[in-house]
Amino acid sequence: MTAITSRRRLLIAGGAALVAALAASVIVVLTRGPADAPAGKLAAAPVAKPAPSSTAPVPPHHRRVRVPHETVAAAAPTRFSYRAPAWTIRANVCGMAYVRPLDPPGEQHHTVCWVQHGFGFAPGSAGRGTTYVLGHAWAEDPREVLNKISATAMREVLPKIAHHRHRTMSGVATYPVTHLDSDVITLRTSAGSLRYTVRSAYAVAKADAGSVTALMNQHTEHRVVIITCGELHGVDYDYNIIVNAFLTSSQALTSRT
Q1: Using the 8-state DSSP alphabet, how is residue 209 labeled?
Q2: Considering the entire predicted model, what is its pTM?
Q3: pLDDT by residue for the chain (257 residues), tens digit each?
Q4: Which of 36, 62, 63, 131 is 20 to 30 A from 102 (CA-CA)?
Q5: Helix (H, G, I), strand (E, B) or coil at 93
Q6: Measured between alpha carbons, how far is 242 from 252 in angstroms, rounded to an integer?
Q7: Long-range contacts of 35-40 (CB under 8 A, 24+ apart)
Q8: Beta bridge pairs of residue 94
Q9: What does each C-alpha distance from 129 to 27, 217, 234 come to in angstroms?
């Protein structure tokens, strides 16, 4: 948990390790079968019906979710919003290449970026796969676009890190974040508006992030993943904050009044 004293070290030192791990992990993820699907995909997976004699309801996390939506074609996102109970983030969206390191370019206070090609998919109601959105959080600049997400997460996980209270995912220690649950992410595109609800979040050491199978599974449908860096109270930490959100509604551009 060493402080990082410059933006370049924050992005390059951590980012290079992250992307090198990503490159190695993609090969493994793409060859895995259904048994290795991440927990986040369970919400969209069909399950066996209970026996006729059983009156017990199917647990919510085993139900096949019917997403209420209008058809919105896959398209590049242009606007991003993140709504929490106490604050809201609004940002423009730029496209970024899948180039090492994953360093979101452009203006840092009102812009996030999505990976356009090679890793993930454009958002749309058809849900071909995951859309990866990256934005900066940096302790030295309180106006960085995703500082509020990062600070909320780190405030919760620092005691867990100190006391080694972690959850193992793919052999990697991760530190669950619950204070972001049920927050709402909206992506606007030229085709419409897509709303996602946060279902899980966690902190993970930057060097280990690419080894988390659930994170790397770009074929998880109806999902947006936010990736940012960990910061709190003027200190940058060598952790990534990962936020998983799933599509809950969508509105086509032509239907707006």
Answers
A1: G
A2: 0.76
A3: 433 333 433 332 333 344 444 444 332 222 223 333 333 332 333 333 333 433 444 444 444 456 567 999 999 999 999 999 999 999 999 999 998 678 899 889 999 999 999 999 999 998 789 999 999 999 999 999 999 999 999 999 999 999 999 999 999 999 999 999 999 999 999 999 999 999 999 999 999 999 999 999 999 999 999 999 999 999 999 999 999 999 999 999 875 54
A4: 36
A5: strand
A6: 28
A7: 36/213, 37/217, 37/220, 38/213, 38/214, 38/215, 38/217, 38/220, 39/200, 39/214, 40/199, 40/200, 40/214, 40/220, 40/223, 40/244, 40/246
A8: 113
A9: 16, 9, 36
How many CB atoms lie under 10 A from the CB of residue 14? 24
> Smallest Cα–Cα separation from 160: which of 212, 227, 230?
230
Half-sphere exposure of 71 (CA within 13 A, CB side): 1
Kindly report whether the peptide bond that precedes residue 34 is cis, defined as omega within 30 degrees of 0.
no
Residue 109, token pair as written in the block: 């206070």
* Count, residues in the chain: 257
197 three-state secondary structure: strand
